[in-house]
Amino acid sequence: MQGADPDTVADALDSGDPLPGTGGFAGEVDGALVRDVLGRYPLFVERAVSEETRLDSEQWSHDPTDLDDPISFPAGHVRTESGTRQRWSLPSPEPSGDRETAIEQVREAVETSIDAVETDGLAIAFSGGVDSALLAARLDAPLYVAGFPDSHDVEAARSAADLLGTEVRIVELTHDAIERAVPEIARATGRTNAMAVQIALPLYLAADRVASDGFDRLALGQGADELFGGYAKVAKAPEDPRVEADTVRGAQREVIASLPDQLERDVLALRAAGVEPVTPLLHDRVIAAALRLDGDLLVDGETRKVALRAAASESLPNEIADRDKKAAQYGSLAARELDRLARQAGYKRRMDDHVTQYVESLVA
């Protein structure tokens, strides 16, 4: 069992509590195969094994490369001898009525989860935004940012580190590093599509440097955008065609539902680089607080992550708590430069999904 004490998982299996106070879990407990409601730990099974067959230790794994034909075990599900069924689903609490109470609940949940992180062997992935800055402000661990020299993330990380009175270690991306990392990411994650590789690139290369510097754990601010309304498509609901929901809260739940697939990719990429991810903003207590937020505490006009920014104001300078950030693949320029490499290799933009074709050529 990864991520949680087996007794806690067994109790959650009996009670059906989807948020039993853990940071996620996946594995076997009392003869059942389980994965938490947000899929925070990867889990895979052999595709061809019958649903009526009890899985032995060679037919499931946390690492897909251990299996002949792996498929992802669905989040929130349990598998026993009688088959696979959903056991947990994301709760739908009513929003907290009082604004200040809701913000205080977020603050307490976030600070408690971060402060509980052990710092032995720990480094922090630091982009200079509010999510990673909260980790940097409350944990005594070195900061790392990956990006090309002229990238937004490198400049944002430097300026935020100055405001926090600390330093950040720069992992300077290069074309050679990208060409080396792409097939390693693809093999570890089982994914060659351009977006998946672009997102994983700065994480993987930062983690690779972190591991070479002697650290085996990497803290990240993952989950904050999904939980607290950080995406433009959530802010623009229901007008944005990328979401089906007709409210901001509905869109929040929609993007939270995308986390199992995203986290699986990121965890596998980071482990392949030699570190274990640490994600305190994805603890059950933070998820519970986020789900109770009303729409105007997620998005208010042009401001996203309203409650999280307000909760962060006691730990961070306003200049950091209020700043926006770019997605890592764009802020680091990894996406731009992977596209450039694809075109230099003859995969032109007029071709169908030219970057994915380029990735596949590197894997082959």
From TrEMBL:
GO terms for molecular function: asparagine synthase (glutamine-hydrolyzing) activity; ATP binding. Pfam families: Asn_synthase (PF00733). Residues 107-239, 251-345 form the Asparagine synthetase domain. Keywords: ATP-binding, Nucleotide-binding. It comes from the Archaea. One of its GO terms (biological process) is asparagine biosynthetic process. Residues 52-65 have a biased composition (Basic and acidic residues). GO terms for cellular component: cytosol. Residues 1-28, 52-100 are annotated as: Disordered. The keyword ATP-binding applies. The keyword ATP-binding applies. PANTHER family: ASPARAGINE SYNTHETASE, ASPARAGINE SYNTHETASE [GLUTAMINE-HYDROLYZING]. This is Asparagine synthase. It comes from Haloarcula mannanilytica. The lineage of its organism: Archaea, Methanobacteriati, Methanobacteriota, Stenosarchaea group, Halobacteria.
